[in-house]
Amino acid sequence: MTRSPLFLAALASSAVPGLDPVTVEGVRRGPDDLFEVAYLRDTQDRRWVVRAPVSQAAGAMLEDVTTLGTLLSRRLDVAVPTVRGQVVVPEGRAVVYLRLPGRPLDFSALPPGPLAGEVGRTLARVHNLDHLLYDESGRPAYDAEAHRRRQLSELDRAAATGHVPTALLNRWEDLLEDVSLWRFAPCPIHGSFTGENVLAGFSDDADASSGTVHGVLAWEEARVGDPADDFAELVTLASPDALDSVLEGYAHERHERPDAGLVRRARLAGEMASVRLLLRAVSAGDVHRVDDLAEQLRELDETIEADDRRHADEDAAREERRRAERAEAFAAAEAAAGRSRPESLPDDAPWDATVPHDPFAAPVTGTVATGAVAQGPDDPDGVAAEGDGAVDGAVDLAADGAAEAAPATAAGLGDEGEGVGDRTGAAIPRTDEVAVVDRDDSPFEIDEAEALPPVDDTNTDTDTDTDTDADTDADAAEVRDADGTGDPVVDEHEGASDFVPVRTDGSGDRPARTGAVRGTKKNRGGRRR
């Protein structure tokens, strides 16, 4: 149905009390437009817009716009249409609202710089809206998987028409089947973020950089979905430099970091825009429009490979610029902090000052200064005793790779009658002997011998069954069981070793289980193992 501008003015006058039109200006409707639009000026010099749907589907889209516009006007710093009145028409409802200031943008002529950045920031503010806002307005919501399946369904329907080239069908199907591309966080989107729906004002008409975004129109397709859908026309029409400015402003304003597949999905949405129009034309029975869209798809099929090469070059150049900007910002921050970048670090490698220790890395060659002892498994605190055990002079740790390092053991420990060496090979005199556990008697495998600290022998219990090892640990404390018999209890902890007294079952393979342990500690004495 085509309504005259005068008829639309009459609808507006009946929808808004006190609206007396003085002039009316009709807007020519395109073949893909869902609404008829007219601009009015009333006796109070107020400017109005009336929008009437051309189909019942378009009328259903307008149902929730009234509530959404009211909520958006309170949360966005740009103007949005706020419905002042509505009137019933056969296709649904016609709405009337005050005309917003500003001029529509042409994304193909969008210059890089402040205006493009403002467009990106405006879009980011829309995507930062609360999901509950759209839910309250009755707008649909699609998560990542639902959105992907929805596009696959559209592709299947388009393939059934026979008007889509096979190469395009295969290309789009491969992209839609790439699950890694569809990992994004759904957010509130505009749904039809095109240049004609973005209004800007200019302080200097001759300077495009002086423009600022004043308003955003046409919220009928607003939903919770893929943020890339709002970039479809931008990535299709805008120049690479202008798109970079848009993305930079968008990323700076966005609460969440944009995902890596945003631009690729936006290009796919731009390519498949003709598919949605084709399905709409087929549904409406518009044969001429179907032929026009089929011709557009054939032209796209012929140029898609060249577009892919151009996009690949643009992406590589964009990534190189971002890398250079990050390196420059990093260097400036380091210079401000009084630090410099290590010369040995490659320019394309990130500098991480907290590289984790690799225990399997090759040993580092170098020298140890006099009296210095490196930290190691047997010296966790890195503390070295001074005096007889100190290293005299610097020692070469590499030794041409032929020398084999001495076992790293604690000072004063070792086999009977043998001297003990430190890490550098220097001999450490033996001190008072302390108990060394016989590994053959241990049911556990241990790498290094540990010992109880030396104790005073004056309080050692004498027992005829005490063996050689018992003489060295006579004063060590021993846990008795609850009945006070003095029998040692079993240590069943996972980290138990020979240094905790256990009772064996005679085989030496496994400790025998005893009665309940109450955890009472008493002075060790009586029998020894």
UniProtKB/TrEMBL annotation:
Alphabetical UniProt keywords: Transferase
Q: Where is the composition biased (Basic residues)?
A: 519-529
Q: Pfam families annotated for this entry?
A: APH
Residue ranges, compositional bias (Basic and acidic residues): 430-442
Question: Any idea where the Aminoglycoside phosphotransferase domain is?
Answer: 38-255
Keyword check for Transferase: yes
- Compositionally biased residues, Acidic residues: 458-476
Region annotated Disordered, chain positions: 305-324, 331-364, 408-529
What molecular functions are annotated in GO for this chain?
transferase activity
Tell whether Transferase is among the UniProt keywords: yes
The protein's name is: Phosphotransferase family enzyme
